[in-house]
Specification:
Lipoprotein, 2 domains, about 250 residues, 12-stranded mixed β-sheet, about 30% strand, 8 helices, alpha+beta
């Protein structure tokens, strides 16, 4: 796997541990052009299957770069453990969703900017960060906890960066020698995809094969990304009466 996604995987794997420390502190399936459409338009919207690997790559990267919002669902399997990420995010750094890290537990996330966010520990994470202290669990149960950049949870802000998923991911399969088109794989929410592989990389970029040029997913052994809900409204609102990590440390 290339550096960009490897970095994202490392971020996911390390986020839960830092959380504990801080708490101890459809696709829109565009119909193809009708026969009467101008030839130039047909060239622009023809299915991915009819394009060269580099044409698919360029069209999908440009489409993703223009996007204002996206939903990213990712799983990372390591042995018998699985980390999970599900975030709806905006280009300006806002995000909402959830994160689960084996050994640390699950949390809900809200990022209102690139420098401020909130998380709500799940029951499994509460047990981990409180050491099973019933009194402390009662204090934190169902509560949101606020954090800022520089307070030990900076990796979460990186995880919610749209650039990581809409631009850095394309560095894995750029228009270099060795870029090939392969059979697509099944991606939830997409009827059909076309795969792109770059010589020397294990992973496969998956692009919607319906003429929309949408980035649909990325897959390799133990790693699966699904990209959906492009440009749909993402509502991000700060929770009421949050606790601060410093006040309960």
């Amino acid at each position: 796997m290339g550096a960009a996604l490897l970095g994202a995987a490392v971020l996911v794997a390390g986020t839960g541990a830092e959380s504990g420390q801080a708490l101890a502190a459809q696709p829109v399936s565009a119909p193809l052009a009708q026969a009467a459409a101008p030839a130039a338009d047909l060239t622009q919207i023809r299915p991915a299957a009819a394009k060269t690997p580099v044409q698919i790559w360029k069209a999908s990267r440009a489409k993703a770069k223009k996007a204002k919002t996206v939903r990213v669902q990712a799983t990372f399997k390591d042995g018998g453990s699985t980390s999970r990420l599900d975030l709806r995010m905006t280009k300006d750094g806002k995000a909402t969703g959830s994160l689960t890290v084996p050994g640390e537990g699950s949390m809900k996330l809200i990022l209102v900017s690139k420098k401020k966010g909130y998380f709500k520990p799940g029951k499994d994470m509460l047990e981990e960060i409180t050491g099973g202290d019933p009194a402390m669990e009662d204090v934190l149960a169902g509560r949101w906890i606020t954090f800022k950049k520089g307070e030990g949870l900076d990796d979460i802000f990186e995880l919610a960066s749209m650039k990581t998923y809409t631009q850095d991911v394309f560095k894995l399969s750029g228009p270099q020698k060795g870029l090939t088109k392969v059979k697509g794989k099944k991606v939830k929410g997409y009827k059909k995809t076309v795969g792109l592989k770059e010589k020397g990389y294990q992973g496969t970029l998956l692009i919607a094969a319906d003429g929309t040029n949408r980035l649909a997913g990325y897959q390799e052994k133990g790693i699966n990304f699904v990209f959906s809900e492009w440009n749909k409204k993402v509502t991000v609102k700060a929770p009421a009466r949050p606790l601060s990590a410093s006040s309960i440390s």
